[in-house]
Structures are given as structure tokens and as C-alpha cells.
Design a protein that fits this description.
The structure is a single chain. This protein is of the alpha/beta class. Among the domains are: 49-57 and 75-227, Rossmann fold (3-Layer(aba) Sandwich), CATH 3.40.50.980; 482-592, GMP Synthetase, Chain A, domain 3, CATH 3.30.300.30. The protein contains 19 helices and 29 strands. The strands form 6 sheets. A 9-stranded mixed β-sheet has the order 3-2-14-13-15-16-17-18-19, with helices on both faces. Helix 4 (77-93) packs across helix 9. The longest helix is centred in the first third of the chain and has 17 residues, at 77-93. 48% of the residues are buried. Residues 1-28 and 588-594 have low confidence and may be disordered. Pfam families: AMP-binding, AMP-binding_C. Its EC number is 6.2.1.2. One of its GO terms (biological process) is fatty acid metabolic process.
């Protein structure tokens, strides 16, 4: 057993009330409870994201910080700091002040990265918005956290971000720079679009870089000591059991320290990382951006959106030594490499998270991609990013059957339904405490109190097993979260939307196994009594969902039913829907795909 963990165990045993609760029937053998606090060797630091950027730029001035292959752009840490301060000063010229929120609505383009860093340097709170979101979803985000300015791409795939913004806020087109006046969006003042041409009511991103004078840019450096590390620097949207996304506010202190300790355990110093994950996710903004920043690593963006072919080309051209991606991405990367046989160089490690990794996938990643080791990370948006993580030289068995070892300076316990710690090795709800805990849900004090107790323990909602050696295992989910290709989806949000369909009277959604994505969405719908089932088509439902739900939220399988299995109290028995899916899918899987 790890010596530090032994110390904590002995400390816990010496506490009278806990000692009695831990004892088994035989009083001679105390039962160790599921409570660990892993004290790291590297101390926590008290600095902001902006100060971390400044520190890294002074330590690695000529090292490349980030490369965007698709855009042909690259920055060293020194030139990055200069460009970030240009944008931060531009934000201030637009009237943005510390505490204001800046929405970032774009795929993996350079303007997203610069916008996030510039917001931190200006004392603003960046708000990551899923680039797949449609108008109603974006409108919710803007109002939920009082976004004052939004930085967006002009287009990506079928999305036209500017037109979507105009559709939900028509006042944009007639507004002067920084003076949007909308009753629907009372806080929104500026729209900044990364476009070649000027768009009515919007400011070009490149023009925002040139708004401020050199003296105003210099003021950004002086501003750093006035920004509190414990103030919010980022807001991440995470779905809730009610279906409405919650806005988890994370501090500079959260970001910097989790980035440092993730980077240390992943040994990222001097590495070049192929970034396949979306930057707006915790995997992108903390596990990738902040961890890379803390260790002077180079981030390589192969494309705006995930493309296995572009990833392989970037790995070769930019000499990447580390890959970041979800299991689904690695499945596609392996499949593409088998076809193309790209001559890959030495890849030291592949970092993954967001879903379970199969033994076959680890084997394929090592054999087909030539990766030396595969590491996993586990955490929640509410815990900044990572609370458990693989340790260097972990065995394949540990990577397969655990979510890694408890992260440095994080305290964890596993409790039963009464809130008491269960014995080590027994399942219960995972709770964590420490520097990783979010500030709270923006605008939702009641939900914050439900999640974080007065004793500062954060309840994760995950059914979990904590082992004596500090490793952990997820054995189930207490809530109905569906994880599709790394995207967290709660059924109620989809159910509420499907219930707005004129032919649907009741809808329920479950997660079903999928070889590539881990899970897929399956919807069961009960039609209005006056509707002829023969007139209902999944194609019509698809058309109804498009443009109103993000693509990953649209159910892949749809089954009309006459009634739902329910308990005597009226609760839906979703486990019976899972059984029904298994029976039906064997009959005609293709016919029911949306």
C-alpha cells in the first residue's frame, strides 16, 4: 500500500466515532473505510491563468505553444502572450470589465484558444458553448450566464453561426459596435465573428485584435496582480437531471492547479500533443490546454473538427509524441490507419477519457498506431476535470479495470444511502473534496447546495468502488446519464423536446450499447390516440429534430409503443425498455435508425 495512503488510513482509524462505524463483527480486525486523501509531492500554487501564461512564456519563450494545421497558424509562447494581450486589450476597449462573461462558440480554431486566454488575462469569464448547438440552445446559454460578448466562427460544416445569432437576436444587424440592445438578451453587447468580410452589427475578430493602442496592451500585464485566483475564469455547461444545462463556474485556482497535476502525471513537458478533443470540453480546456501550458508542451490542432485522416497527417508532419482523444476517436483513428498505413513516428502515449476503453482497443492502439502506452483520466465538470488518473508505468490491467489513481491533493470517499463511508472495495456514491471543487452552479444556489455540502464534499452521483491502493472503479451510474462518444446527455432534455412533437404524447429515452460510440440514444414514443401509427415515420421525427437539437442528441433508434411499463407509483421502468430494445433490435436494427 502507498505509504501516504497508509498514513491517512491510520489517521482515520484513530478517530473514535469512525473507528466504531468501521468495525466488523470481529472487534479484533478493523475494517478500512473508503476514504482517501492523496497528498502530492508538488504543492498547490496560487496564481491565475494569465500569470501561468506569463510564467510559461518566460520559461519557454521560443517553444511552440500551439499550431493550427488547417489555418496554417502557429505561435511560440512568447508570441502567444503578445497576441493574447492584444485581444484582451481589445475586449476592454469594447467595454468588457473583470467579471463579465465572454461566450466562445466555435470548433477547434485559433480564435477559440486566443479568446479563452485573452478572457483570462482580462479578468473575464470565458463560456464554452458547444459548436453543434442550435439557436434555442445558444439562446439559453447566453441568458443563463449573462454573456456580454460572444466570439464565434462564421461557419463550420452546415452551421452558419452569424445567421443563427441573427435569427435569435435580430437587433444585431442594426447595432453599432459594442452597442447591441436586445430585450431578449439584455446583457449582450458585442458579437465578434472570425470572418474575412465585415458582417452587419458584428466586429471582425482580426479587427478586435487591433482595437487597442500599445499602451492599452501594456496595461493588461499590470492588471494581472488585480485578478483573484479564486475568481471565476471559465463556465462549463453540464446537463442536469431536470434536462436543463447547469453552468458550472470554475476558478483560475481550479484551472491552474488541475492543469499542473494532470500535466505532471502525464509527463507532458517538451511533448507535442495531437489534439483531437473539442477545446470547449473539460478534456480540451483543462486536460489539454492547461496541462500543456503548465509544462510548455505544444498543442497541435489537426482540424476544426475531428478527422482521423487529418490527425494522422498532423502526427507525422508536426512530429506529435502524445495523442488526446476519446475512445470513439481512437476507434476511427485505428480504422483509418489500417487503410492508409501512414508511416507514424514514435508516439509515447495516448490519453483517453469520457468512456470505457475495451481490451481490444488498447491492443489496436498499441499495435496499429504504435503507441507505447495508453492512459486514462476520470473526472467531472464540477471537479474542474480530473480526480482520478493513470500513473506512469501503470499495467494494462489497471488501465482496463480502473479509472486510475486518486489525483494529488484530492480527498475522496465512497458513501452509502445514509451518507456513511462504506468499507474499502464496496460500492457506493463517490464524493470528493479539495481544490478541484467548482465555485458552484452559476445562478443556481439551490442546485449548488444539493451537490456541495456544508462540509465541502461534492457528491458526484457515480456508483464507485475505492480500492486500498488508491485506484478507483466506476461500477454504475446513480443517474441516467448517457455518454455518447464522450458527450454527456441526460434523457429528460431529449424527452421534453420529443414531447413537443404534434404526434407524440409521451416519450422516454434510454442509452443502449454501441460498439463505436459506447452508447447511443433510443427513444420510445407513445402517439396521440387520434394518430394512425402508419402515418408516423422516423424520417419525419429526424426532420423535426434537426436544427433544434445538437446532432449528438438526436436518437438513433425510435420505437412507437402503445404503453410504457410503469411501477404502481407511476414511475417508468426503464430497465424494461432496455429489455424491449434488445428484443426489437434483433428483428430489424436498420429499419428503426433515425
Amino acid at each position: 500500500m502507498n505509504k501516504k495512503l497508509q498514513i491517512v488510513s491510520r489517521h482515520v482509524l484513530r478517530q473514535g466515532p469512525l473507528l466504531q462505524a468501521m468495525r466488523s463483527v470481529s472487534t479484533s480486525m478493523p475494517v478500512l473505510i473508503s476514504h482517501r486523501h492523496h497528498i502530492g509531492k508538488e504543492p498547490l500554487v496560487y496564481r491565475t491563468v494569465g500569470q501561468q501564461l506569463e510564467l510559461t512564456a518566460s520559461k519557454y519563450p521560443d517553444t511552440e505553444a500551439i499550431v493550427s494545421c488547417q489555418e496554417g497558424k502557429r505561435y511560440t509562447f512568447k508570441s502567444l502572450l503578445e497576441e493574447v494581450d492584444r485581444l484582451a486589450a481589445g475586449f476592454r476597449r469594447l467595454g468588457l470589465r473583470p467579471g463579465d462573461s465572454v461566450g466562445l462558440w466555435a470548433p477547434n480554431y485559433m480564435h477559440w484558444y486566443l479568446g479563452m486566454m485573452a478572457s483570462a488575462r482580462a479578468g473575464l469569464t470565458s463560456v464554452g458553448i458547444n459548436p453543434a448547438f442550435q439557436g434555442p440552445e445558444v439562446a439559453y446559454c447566453l441568458n443563463k450566464v449573462n454573456v456580454k460578448a460572444i466570439v464565434a466562427s462564421e461557419t463550420f460544416k452546415s452551421q452558419n453561426y452569424y445567421e443563427i445569432l441573427r435569427s435569435i437576436c435580430p437587433e444585431i444587424a442594426d447595432a453599432d459596435q459594442g452597442k447591441i440592445n436586445s430585450e431578449k438578451f439584455p446583457h449582450l453587447r458585442s458579437v465578434i465573428i472570425d470572418s474575412k468580410d465585415s458582417l452587419k452589427g458584428a466586429l471582425r475578430f482580426d479587427d478586435c485584435l487591433d482595437l487597442a493602442s500599445s499602451s492599452e496592451r501594456e496595461e493588461i500585464g499590470k492588471l494581472q496582480t488585480k485578478i483573484c485566483p479564486e475568481s471565476a475564469c471559465n463556465i462549463q455547461f453540464t446537463s442536469g437531471t431536470t434536462g436543463s444545462p447547469k453552468a458550472a463556474a470554475l476558478s483560475h485556482y481550479n484551472f491552474v492547479n488541475n492543469g499542473i497535476h494532470v500535466g505532471t502525471r502525464n509527463q507532458l513537458e517538451g511533448e507535442r500533443i495531437c489534439v483531437q478533443v473539442p477545446l470547449f470540453h473539460a478534456f480540451g480546456v483543462v486536460i489539454t490546454i492547461m496541462a500543456g501550458l503548465s509544462k510548455g508542451a505544444t498543442l497541435v490542432l489537426p482540424a476544426a473538427g475531428f478527422s482521423p485522416k487529418d490527425s494522422l497527417q498532423a502526427i507525422v508532419k508536426e512530429k506529435c509524441t502524445v495523442i488526446h482523444g476519446t475512445p470513439t476517436m481512437y476507434v476511427d483513428l485505428v480504422s483509418t490507419q489500417r487503410k492508409l498505413q501512414v508511416p507514424l513516428g514514435r508516439i509515447k502515449k495516448a490519453i483517453t477519457g469520457g468512456a470505457i476503453v475495451s481490451p481490444q482497443l488498447i491492443k489496436d492502439v498499441k499495435e496499429v498506431l504504435g503507441v507505447e502506452a495508453m492512459h486514462s483520466v476520470f473526472g467531472l465538470t464540477e471537479t474542474t476535470a480530473v480526480i482520478f488518473q493513470s500513473v506512469p508505468n501503470d499495467s494494462e490491467d489497471k488501465v482496463l479495470h480502473t479509472v486510475g489513481h486518486l489525483q494529488d491533493h484530492v480527498e475522496a470517499k465512497v458513501i452509502d444511502s445514509d451518507g456513511k463511508c462504506v468499507p474499502l472495495g464496496q460500492p457506493g456514491e463517490l464524493c470528493v473534496r479539495g481544490y478541484v471543487t467548482m465555485l458552484g452552479y452559476h445562478g443556481d444556489p439551490e442546485k449548488t447546495e444539493e451537490t456541495i455540502g456544508k462540509d465541502k464534499w461534492l457528491r458526484t452521483g457515480d456508483q464507485f468502488v475505492l480500492e486500498a491502493n488508491g485506484y478507483g472503479r466506476i461500477v454504475g451510474r446513480l443517474k441516467e446519464l448517457i455518454i455518447r462518444g464522450g458527450e454527456n446527455i441526460f434523457p429528460k432534455e431529449i424527452e421534453d423536446f420529443l414531447n413537443t412533437h404534434p404526434q407524440v404524447i409521451e416519450a422516454h429515452v434510454i442509452g443502449v450499447p454501441d460498439e463505436r460510440l459506447g452508447e447511443e440514444l433510443c427513444a420510445f414514443v407513445r402517439l396521440n390516440e387520434d394518430i394512425d401509427p402508419a402515418t408516423f415515420t422516423v424520417e419525419a421525427l429526424r426532420a423535426y429534430c434537426k436544427g433544434k437539437l445538437a446532432h449528438f442528441k438526436i436518437p438513433r433508434y425510435v420505437f412507437p409503443v402503445e404503453a410504457f411499463p410503469k411501477t404502481t407509483s407511476g414511475k417508468i421502468q426503464k430497465f424494461k425498455l432496455v429489455q424491449e430494445f434488445k428484443e426489437r433490435v434483433g428483428q430489424d436494427r436498420e429499419a428503426v435508425r433515425v
